[in-house]
Amino acid sequence: MAKLPQEYVSRQAEIVARFHQALHTHLEDFLAGRVEQLHTLTELASVLCLHPGHLSQVIKAATGHHACHFYEQRLVVEAKKRLKDTSLPIGTIARQLDYEVSNFTKFFKRFTGLTPSQYRKTITTSAEDNQVGCPN
Known about the structure:
The chain has helices spanning 6-31, 41-47, 52-63, 67-83, 90-96, 101-112, 116-130. By secondary structure, it is mostly helical.
């Protein structure tokens, strides 16, 4: 197998770094309510002045994951954080993360093995188990 010239490896690293930065900035803007919808991969590639297919290939080659994987991982982290607040209905959390409730449940279960309500229940159960009673 032929070795890639160093300039291509450097360009690959540059694209990955720019992708992660653009994704981070966009997700921060989305979660803060400064933008209403998540970018598609095509829109994100456009921000980076790259063809979506090329961006996908570079991200996959460099990280071993599809570009969408990084969106999904960040949304799972955010969903877990929001599910800790039991005053927020799961439907509200789903809509905040740009999902319909049924799709959010499927998405969350695919990454955690639990539905959002099961996850929330494990959090509240473990929090109750960790509370230490005061000695008399």
